[in-house]
Amino acid sequence: MRVLELAPQVYVSGQVFEEDLKLAAKQNVRSIVNNRPDDETVGQPKSADLARVAEELGMKFVHFPLESRSISQESVEEFARLCAGLERPLLVFSGSGVRSTKIWEMAE
């Protein structure tokens, strides 16, 4: 899993899998936001399955799916409110990380 820092204690990555969640927990990540809709690609883990593992590891998991083509101002504002209320360190992810980076930058 390749992780980039977007802001202090805010990180972005591409698709995460159960093993990645275990690594994130060891790095003390407290919250995870999934910006990827379920069934976007074959072999992608279901958000509910990732949420179950994350919560077992003591992390808060939120599914906030976004379409990759356009992000509305309403979504940006809702995402900003959501992230403001989450404990840090925070990891946001999408298929490649681009969508999550884009909405984070728009929210800032």
Defining traits:
five-stranded mixed sheet, 5 strands, globular
Task: Please tell me about this protein's structure.
With 108 residues, this protein is α/β, with parallel strands linked by helices. It contains 4 helices and 5 strands. It has helices spanning 18-26, 47-56, 73-84, 98-107, and strands spanning 3-7, 10-13, 31-34, 60-63, 90-93. It has a 5-stranded mixed sheet, with helices on both faces.
Superfamily (CATH H level) name? Protein tyrosine phosphatase superfamily
* Secondary structure category: alpha/beta
Average pLDDT level: 96
Order of neighbouring strands in the sheet with most strands = 1-2-5-3-4
**CATH architecture label:** Alpha-Beta Complex
Q: How much strand?
A: 15-25%
Largest sheet: 5 strands, mixed
**What is the count of distinct domains?**
1
| Percent of residues in helices | 25-40%
* CATH top level label: Alpha Beta
Oligomer: single chain
According to CATH, the fold-level topology is: Protein-Tyrosine Phosphatase, Chain A
Q: How would you describe the shape? A: globular
Count, helices: 4
Order of helices and strands: EEHEHEHEH
- Count of strand segments: 5
